[in-house]
Design a protein that fits this description.
Number of helices: 14
Number of domains: 2
Strand order of the largest sheet: 2-1-15-14-13
Distance between the termini: 34 Å
Radius of gyration: 49 Å
Shape: elongated
Strand content: 15-25%
Helix content: 40-55%
Largest sheet: 5 strands, antiparallel
């Protein structure tokens, strides 16, 4: 039977999960789309602002470079172009916006573009009078080698801890005597020791041969006021080792021995995080600038494109932006140059990053809703199934219980028809009426049970009821039977047992308890009623119950006897009603044997 019920049991969590998951995906998808569109709008404004800023800086840089005496000739020209393509790195802090810049001459030849570089970051003469310009790493390293070098650069930024510790890594290059050729790249790991005595210690760098004394960090200077702040910490180098190196395969051993080792700076755009640099450096769009002669498309020269292209214009292809400027350059041979700015946006990535916590919160809320809804439906379904099972049991029990009195009535009626005996006529009619009254009583009890089963629609009155007083009232209804059996009734009131509930229904429960205590008592027996705060105990003398009877005493129609005679009181009906009524009032009932008979305990449930 239980197997059949389990097969019929509904699994509400599956449809609930499907509905809420669909709603969750639709809601999150729509929200993400709206956020993505908002980011796209912001990107357009940001790109326009960045492009305008770069154009303004290019103009300012031209004026500054024209007045500068540090550079002359080709160096000044190259430095200006380098500044044009490198000024953009800090133009935007949005982690999803990556920009690249290129400069072309009037013949549409590429003069400079954004790149990963190593060397002196300006074309300035070092102590030996050598101009060591930044070397484009794309001309020397594979992308894999660039990744390894960039990873060390990122670790170096992390190791300084906001400039309170000296750098853990040092980047060096070996170059030709004229500073034009790159021979080697080294990543050197330094071991530092903190202490004031560092001023007196020196370490000879085996790679450069220089003597390293100490490093002072943590002490900052406000250059506007000259005020010092922070705590100075002194470190000195105790050891070093080469972690990574690259050697130019085109350089001979003799050339390498004549080379000079110099400190080198690194330029990895957007190295605020290794992942962001990698995304920038691996983008084909940001590095695939037009070949010579293709800057203006079908136009063969810049002059031929003037009518078609204004001096400043921008265009957009999907998630890719392109902006082109025409710049006049007075201090170099080029009368004007063209600068192209490209931006690659990632609105979906930005939207997902922005929404990730909302995704998690929405998912948790969805799971909670699935659990609550499915649990509620399962509880409702379980109640309906239990109610259906109870009603089915009641129908079966009613059919079984009514079968006996109906059989008796039929038997007496047939006897009246077949045997017209006047002396038994009244007896037969009396028995028929008695059986119909028993059937009527049984039907009324079933109606009462049906009402209690519809507990959601049952409106119970709320009033304070004294349980002890209620027992005394109901006990008076049994005084004829009590007197007939000479039963002694005793009351022991340690405290009043107060109950909030419907007095009428509570009276029915008490009536059934007293009915059992009187009916199953013995002649010259005793009933003891004891009340205390939160509990009431009714004890009666009489025959004790078997263990199975105690377990099933509150079951419907249970008598503990397989043969149900017509005059036997069905304890199962009365106690079933008692448990049902008390349960609706937040109370429980327990029945147990004593040395002299039966004890029933009624108390509040915690």
């Amino acid at each position: 039977m239980n197997g059949i019920r389990n097969k019929k049991k509904k699994r509400f969590w599956k449809p609930a999960a499907a509905v809420f998951l669909t709603l969750y995906l639709a809601t999150m998808g729509l929200a993400t789309l709206l956020v993505k569109q908002k980011f796209e709008e912001d990107y357009i404004r940001t790109f326009e602002q960045v492009a305008t800023s770069i154009h303004r800086k290019a103009t300012d840089q031209e004026d500054s470079m024209a007045e500068s005496e540090e550079f002359t000739g080709e160096d000044k020209r190259r430095e200006y172009y380098r500044c044009l393509v490198n000024e953009y790195f800090w133009s935007t802090t949005n982690p999803q916006l990556n920009i690249a810049v290129a400069v072309y001459d009037k013949e549409q030849n590429l003069l400079a573009n954004s790149y990963d570089a190593i060397g002196d970051m300006m074309y300035m003469a070092n102590t030996a009078g050598i101009n060591v310009g930044p070397f484009n790493l794309d001309d020397y390293l594979t992308f894999k080698q660039k990744e390894e070098l960039a990873e060390h650069c990122w670790k170096e930024r992390q190791s300084t801890e906001n400039y309170t510790l000296p750098g853990k890594y040092r980047f060096l290059i070996r170059i030709s005597s004229d500073g034009k050729e790159l021979y080697d790249i080294f990543v050197q790991e330094l071991t530092w020791e903190e202490g004031e005595e560092a001023n007196e210690k020196q370490y000879k760098n085996p790679l450069t041969g220089e003597m390293v004394t100490h490093a002072s960090v943590g002490l900052m200077v406000d250059y506007a006021t000259g005020k010092e702040y922070g705590t100075e910490r002194i470190f000195h180098v105790t050891d070093s080792k080469i972690l990574w190196e690259w050697a130019n395969p085109d350089i001979s051993k003799e050339e390498r021995e004549n080379g000079e080792v110099q400190d080198a700076g690194l330029v990895f755009p957007y190295i605020t995080s290794y992942e962001r640099w990698h995304r920038w450096s691996s983008s084909k769009y940001l590095h695939s600038f037009p070949n010579p002669g293709e800057f203006f498309g079908e136009a063969e020269t810049a002059e031929a494109a003037e009518a078609e292209y204004p001096s400043i214009y921008s265009e957009r292809e999907g998630l890719l932006f392109r902006c082109k400027y025409k710049l006049k350059v007075e201090f170099v041979d080029d009368p004007y140059v063209y600068m192209e700015i490209r931006m690659e946006e990632r609105p979906w990535s930005d939207a997902f990053e922005y929404m990730k916590y909302l995704y998690l919160a929405g998912l948790l809320l969805t799971v909670l809703c699935v659990f609550v809804v499915s649990h509620t439906f399962e509880q409702t379904y379980a109640r309906q199934m239990a109610l259906e099972e109870t009603r089915r049991d009641i129908t079966n029990a009613m059919a079984h219980e009514l079968k006996t009195p109906l059989g008796i009535i039929r038997n007496f009626a047939e006897n009246l028809i077949e045997h017209n005996m006047e002396e038994k006529r009244d007896y037969y009619l009396t028995q028929i009426i008695g059986q119909t009254e028993e059937m009527d009583s049984l039907v009324r009890e079933m109606i009462e049970i049906s009402k209690l089963d519809d507990s959601e629609e049952l409106a119970l009155k709320k009033e304070t009821v004294s349980f002890g007083e209620l027992i005394r009232e109901e006990m008076k209804k049994f005084e004829p039977m009590i007197d007939e059996k000479n039963i002694q009734v005793q009351y022991q009131e340690d405290a009043d047992f107060l109950v909030e509930g419907d007095r009428e229904y509570l009276g029915k429960a008490v009536w059934n308890l007293i009915s059992n205590a009187v009916e199953y008592n013995v002649p010259d027996g005793r009933i003891l009623v004891r009340t205390e705060a939160g509990k009431c105990v009714i004890e009666n003398t009489g025959k004790t119950m078997e263990e199975e009877q105690l377990l099933h005493a509150f079951d419907l129609f249970y008598t503990g006897n397989k043969s149900r005679g017509k005059k036997e009181k069905h304890m199962g009906i009365g106690l079933f009603l008692v448990k049902k009524i008390l349960g609706l009032h937040g109370m429980g009932v327990m029945i147990e044997n004593t040395e002299e008979g039966i004890r029933v305990t009624v108390k509040h449930l915690k």
